[in-house]
Amino acid sequence: MTPCNFTLIRNPFGQLVFTGAEGDVHEGVVPVRAFGITAPDEGLALVNAHGKELLWIERLADLPEGPRQLVVEELANREFMPVISRIVHVSSFATPSTWDVETDRGNARLVLKGEDDIRRLNQQALLISDSHGVQYLIRNRQALDKPSRKFLERFL
Amino acid sequence: MSALLGPDETILAHLELDLDKTLRFARGLVLVTDRQLIARSGEEPAWQAFPYRAGLHLQRRDHAGVASLELVDEQRQLARWRHTLGKDTNARQVLDHFEQQRDAAVSGQPVEAPPAAICARCGAPLVPGQDDCPSCAKELYTPPSTWTLFRLWRFARPYRGQLLAGFILTLISTAATLVAPYMTMPLMDEVLIPYQNGQPLDTGKVYFYLGGLLGSALLAWGLGWAKTYILALVSERLGADLRSQTYEHLLKLSLEYFGGKRTGDLMARIGSESDRICVFLSLYLLDFFTDVLMITMTAVILVSINPWLAAVTLIPLPFIVWLIHVVRDKLRHGFEQIDRVWSGVTSVLADTIPGIRVVKAFAQEKRETSRFKDANQRNLEANDRVNRLWSLFSPTITLLTEVGLLIVWGLGIWLVTKNQVTVGTLAAFLAYIGRFYTRLDSMSRIVSHTQKAASGAKRIFDILDHVSSVPEPVKPQHLTKVEGGITVERVGFRYGNRTVLRGVDLKINPGEMIGLVGHSGSGKSTLVNLICRFYDVGEGAICIDGVDVRNIPVSEYRKHIGLVLQEPFLFFGTIAENIAYGKPDASREEIVAAARAAHAHEFILRLPHGYDSLVGERGQALSGGERQRISIARALLIDPKILILDEATSAVDTETELEIQGALDNLIKGRTTIAIAHRLSTLRKADRLVVMDRGVVVEEGQHDELIAKEGAYYRLYTAQTKQLDEQLAERESEE
Ligand SMILES: Nc1ncnc2c1ncn2[C@@H]1O[C@H](COP(=O)(O)OP(=O)(O)OP(=O)(O)O)[C@@H](O)[C@H]1O
Ligand SMILES: [Mg+2]
């Protein structure tokens, strides 16, 4: 259990404020996952605005209820990795190609600049970076429907 | 919505939001008018209006591809809107207009007119003297035409004469082979069958026909030889052109392109794939045309001999066409996959071989072998998939033609029994059909080569179609005489979605020496990259002597810059060649002078062949400090107006560094110099020090001023001297 000798609150500006054991106050603290893709729930750090680590959290569950809520909230606020559930249409099999996709965050259109922007995370999972740096995740490409798989295969 | 706007209230800027507060894709809008800021994000039912007042602030930040715009006053956050980085130009505009309007509303003074040159599409300020907006041009994503094979004509064009000659020769030689079966007809009907029926052998006719057969065979041989020779020559030249043009184009692309590519992949594209295309263009394409012609010619002959039999011959044709249609896409897809997988194989090689020292140091040979085996295995699988399809396709075609032949035999025998055709006609007919089907067979096989070439062409055009993100100016401005004054104005830069520089302002006078210091990762090398125009700035501008660097032809501009990189890279070749890299026609005296200035002369003399010694691939036969000194000499040789030293002496010992410093002191006279160093003592000669921290310039001034300020520089400095003191103390205590 991470010792709870700090306080974490949200100020009216919407920023997290961290007060450490020595009474040091840091505004604009952000939670960062150490292994954002491979182990998102293990190893988080609270980092201040200057990029200095204030607190290492082994597991999110170790945190007391209050701060945990805030951290989870803030993570939801910062993290943006839509999970693609269906590829509706691709404009061409040659890149740059515009894809219409359905994601867990609604329908979106992304531009794939090159085949190299599709990164294999493991056998099944893929990470797709669009032309503006938004990253889309495909958890399990075998689980997509057949047309989506067909589209995808042309790029792999 | 117009109800929200007052009478004659004008909208100045707008930002279409594409995300809502919970980061789901949804539309929304932020408007800046001359009175207020109005906004509605996707999930909200109503518009929110914020009339301008003092204390109102709009803040913009981004993280991982998502930006947020926050409206705050002194007490709290009032609202927050989210959007992806695709809308970033609009967001910046909204921000700029908001600040202007708020200030105007608070102070009661009218807004100054905004700068005149603004891109009509995105509203970003235009680079003076350039009509099209660089950021808009980058946004245009026109997928390349899928008819890639036709686009290859551009490479075949210079050889159209030879190609035509080859085509005609192929045609005639094939026609010559058609003569033979035509002679079998009279040979049978006029010679053999009458003889069988008891008439005497007409030897004259026998000699005539046999002579004809021999003649046509010889003709076909001669023509075939000429054709093959011409086409082989053309094929090689075409391939060479394709390769060098692709390479030439590749080298013009910006670092951004190379950052996202794997070396092995590019090597595969330029190497093997271009080869396949040229073989296709010069051999199979012609074969295809001749096949088509031959088939038509044979068809005409067949119809002229017997239309009924001819009609039967064509029965398998629709099936073949249908089959080709089915396999074509699958093959194309399969070959594309093979290409990519093959790139993977070369990538493993290109990755491991330069890093062999690390592999060995950590004893990971087994791991690397298995990585290679995996890539190889994937290659096998991809090939197997295509082969499965292909192995089925080609015998199927053969089967279809055999069946066709069978039908013709059947019908022929029936017709002979009905006395409608002679045996000779049937024999000749069958001989032609043999040829007809062979042609059909080979034509259908071309589909494989076509698709292979098409997939290769797609990947080559991938390179050729790529427009450099550091484009050549449309209306270039030429630098007649370079003074070396550099102005960096409000420069922001991002690698992908990672913001590295924010609002950097810097003015460097001609001939001044600037020391750039800051923590590792603070963006020093990035700033240098921008000044060299390896990348183009995201926002703001960099000017040389008042001219935006985007308006100067790239290579002309770089001639004035001598750059020593943080990671010195030497090319395979001799030391002299490496020093003279930027000026290949440099005299030996110049090379030696530059080497002396960089304090490389003496160590070079110690090498077995002096300046003619080989440096090994990537310069690995030299030590780190030796490599650095050669790259300093290389930069000095081109006598640049602007000298950039990025950690130029980090790998040499302190004494050598001091010596190089001493030499450099003379050399930097009259040149604008930007020197980056972690060892702050290196920069004691600098006219001015610029301290960077996390992408912004935090301090500027001379050493003493900055020390007196007790700011960021002071901390850096004391940390270093303290370290030094501690080390000294430690050493003393040990003694
Ligand atoms: N090609 C790149 N792609 C993505 N990020 C990059 C790239 N090059 C540099 N960065 C990031 O940009 C930031 C600034 O890098 P930069 O090389 O400018 O630092 P620096 O000040 O030169 O550091 P150092 O003193 O260690 O050389 C770093 O955080 C780095 O990780
Ligand atoms: Mg650097």
Automatic annotation (TrEMBL), chain A:
Protein name as annotated: DUF1854 domain-containing protein
Organism: Azospira oryzae (strain ATCC BAA-33 / DSM 13638 / PS) (Dechlorosoma suillum)
InterPro entries: DUF1854
Domain DUF1854: 26-155
UniProt-listed Pfam families: DUF1854
UniProtKB/TrEMBL annotation, chain B:
Organism: Azospira oryzae (strain ATCC BAA-33 / DSM 13638 / PS)
GO CC term (a single one): plasma membrane
Primary localisation category: membrane
Signal peptide per UniProt: none
Superkingdom of this protein's organism: Bacteria
Protein name: ABC-type multidrug transport system, ATPase and permease component
Compartments where located: Cell membrane
Occurrences of domain ABC transporter (ranges): 486-719
Transmembrane regions listed in the UniProt entry: 163-183, 206-226, 277-302, 308-327, 389-415, 421-438
Keyword Nucleotide-binding: yes
Membrane topology qualifier: Multi-pass membrane protein
CDD domains: ABC_6TM_exporter_like
Lineage per the UniProt record: Bacteria, Pseudomonadati, Pseudomonadota, Betaproteobacteria, Rhodocyclales
Matching InterPro entries: AAA+_ATPase, ABC1_TM_dom, ABC1_TM_sf, ABC_transporter-like_ATP-bd, ABC_transporter-like_CS, P-loop_NTPase, Type_1_exporter
Keyword terms: ATP-binding, Cell membrane, Membrane, Nucleotide-binding, Transmembrane, Transmembrane helix, Transport
Residue span, ABC transmembrane type-1 domain: 164-452
MF (Gene Ontology): ABC-type oligopeptide transporter activity; ATP binding; ATP hydrolysis activity
